[in-house]
Amino acid sequence: MGFEQNIRKVEPYVAGEQPKNPGVIKLNTNECPYPPSPLVKEAEGKIDYEKLRLYPDMNAEKLVDALAEYYQVKPSQVFVGVGSDDVLSMAFLTFFNGSLPVLFPDITYSFYDVWADLYRIPYKTCPLTEDFHIRKEDYLVPNGGIIFPNPNAPTGVLEEVSMIEEIIRANQDVVVIIDEAYIDFGGESVLPLIDKYENLLVVQTFSKSRAMAGMRIGYAMGNEKLIRYLKDAKFSFNSYTMNLPSIEMGTAAVKDDAYFKETTGKIIATRERVKKEMKKLGFFFTDSMSNFLFAGHENVPAGELFRALKENDIYVRYWNKDRISNRLRITIGTDEQMDRFLEFLRSYLNN
Amino acid sequence: MGFEQNIRKVEPYVAGEQPKNPGVIKLNTNECPYPPSPLVKEAEGKIDYEKLRLYPDMNAEKLVDALAEYYQVKPSQVFVGVGSDDVLSMAFLTFFNGSLPVLFPDITYSFYDVWADLYRIPYKTCPLTEDFHIRKEDYLVPNGGIIFPNPNAPTGVLEEVSMIEEIIRANQDVVVIIDEAYIDFGGESVLPLIDKYENLLVVQTFSKSRAMAGMRIGYAMGNEKLIRYLKDAKFSFNSYTMNLPSIEMGTAAVKDDAYFKETTGKIIATRERVKKEMKKLGFFFTDSMSNFLFAGHENVPAGELFRALKENDIYVRYWNKDRISNRLRITIGTDEQMDRFLEFLRSYLNN
Fold first, then answer.
1. Which residues are reported to carry the modification N6-(pyridoxal phosphate)lysine (chains A, B) (predicted)?
2. The CATH number of domain A2-30+258-349 is 3.40.640.10
3. What is the ipTM of this complex?
C-alpha cells in the first residue's frame, strides 16, 4: 500500500465524448455550432507574443472592463475565471462556509455536489416537480446558500425572474448563485437584480453563446462586496490563471454584439423548428430555452435511440439515471446538422 | 452582517508589482527577460480559431506527448495544468490526505502553507540552516508528505540530487514532491529518479526557463500511478482547464530545444557575471542556481536599497519577514538591464 494510503480517491468524471472522426455530428456537449466572432480571429493575430514572457494581468482588467461596459455594471462588479467551472468552484469555496446545507435541485449540473464534497460543504438536493420545475417552497427554509442554473441543465427549463426574485429576497442571509450558462438562448437574466440584492451572484460563460469553449472563460457579476470576497479568495491561493490569449480574445468577443445576436438568434430559430419536427415524430420534451433539447420518445426508449444515433455518427448525451433515464439531451447544431438528425430519426422510427 | 457570516475570509496575496510604465526595469517576478521561442509565435498564427467553439482536449494530449518525448518519459507519466500553481495545488489536494503533518522548509514558496490551509492539510515547517540549506534529518521523521523547491525560492539554493534521493528513499510511504520551477538554470533535476521511486513527483513550469508566464502552463512527471491519481482528482471537479492556445503554443515551445538552451545559457552567464560585480560592491548572497539572486549588503539595509531602487524605476522583491528581512530577490534580466542595475548600485553606494 505505502504512499497510496494518503491519496484522495475520487469518482472520475465522465465527459461527453470528443470524437476525433470529423464525420461525426456532435450534439453531445452543448457547444455552439458556429465559430466565434471574426473579431476573435483578428485579436488572435494581434497578440503580442513577446509579452508572453510576463505574467498576465491578474485582474484581467481589459476583459473585465469590456464585460462591465457590455452589461452596464461597474468593473468592480465583475469577476472572471478559467471557464464558469472555475468561477463556480471558487464561489462554492468563498460563499458556502456555513454549517446549514446548501440547496440545489436533484436534477441539475453535475459538478455542484462534487464541489460541495470537495470543500466539505453540507448540501441537500430539492426534487424538481414532475415537469422539471423548481418548487419555490423548497428554498424558503433555513439553508447555507442556494445555487441553481437558469435555464436548468440538462432539462432546459427556464424559471420566471419573479419567482427567482422571491427566493433571493427570502434568503438575504445567504448567497444565492444563479448559474446562467444558457441564459442567452431566449431566457431573461436576473442580472438587473444585482443592484437590488447584495446576496445575488450571477454566473455566465463564453463556452455556449459566445462559441469559445476552447478558450475557457467564465465570469460572475454581483455587488462589489461579493466580487471582492471572490477575488480575495482566488488571489490568496492562485493569482494568475487567465492567460494572455484568453484576455485578448475574450475581450474581442464581447465587443461584437451584432455577431452574438445573430448566432444566438440562429440557434433559437433552429431549436424552435426542431421542436416542431420532433413533436411530429412522437417526441415529448421540456420547452427548452437553452441551446439543447431534453427529449424522450413515446414508444422508443432513450437508451435505444442513443445507441442507434451513435452507430450512425450522431452523438447526443444520455444518462442512465433516476428520473431522466428516458431522455436524451440534444445540442442544437446548424440547420444542416439538425436536418440530418431529423432525417435519421424519421427513417429509424418508421422501421 | 447577513450573508457575510458564511463567507471565507482570507489573507489576500500580495504579488510582485506589474508596473504599467514601460521604462521600469522589472526584476521582481522572476520572469524570463527574453521572449518565447519564435516557434511559439508561429504556432500562435496557426491556431484554428474555428476550433475554439469546441471544448479543448481535456488530456492536452499534444502537449503531453511533446513533453514526454522531450523528457524521454511515457505520456502516462506526464500531467499538465494551468501554471505550476495549478499543478501543485492539485498535488496537495490529491496526495496529502494523511493525518500526519506535511513537511516543507520555513523559508520557501509562499503558496505551500496557503494550499495546506485551503485543503485542511496539517503541516510543519522545517527551519533551513543559517546558510539556507535543507537539513536532511528534518525529513527523516514520520510525516504525511514532503514538498520543497529545488533550487529553493526565494533563496536560489540548490540541493544535491544524492541528498534528495536519501529523503525520497526514506519516505516511500508518502509522496515527495520536488518543485523544480527553477531547475533549468544550472541545477540537476531529480527526474531520472521517477522510474526508481514510485513516490516521487517532479513539478516544472513554462513560466521561467520557457519564457511563457503569460500562458500559464505547468506540468508534473512521476510514475503512472501518481499521474493517474492526479488526473482522476482533477477531472472529477474541473475537466477543462488548458485552453487551445496553451496546448498549441506550449507544444511549440517544447520543440525548440536550441532556443531553450540558448536563452537559459544567456541567463546563467549574466547571473554569474552579476554575482562577481555585486561582490565587488559589498553584497553577500547565496550561490543561486536560479534565474534570480538573493542578496544583502554588508552596510546598507535591504529595505533601504529596495526603496532606492524602486524610486529609480528598478523593481526587485523584498519581504520584511523573519530571517530574510535583509535580503533582496533580484531577477536576472538582460545584460543591458543588469548593467543599468549595477550602475545604479555603484552610484548609490558611493554616495
1. 208
2. no
3. 0.95
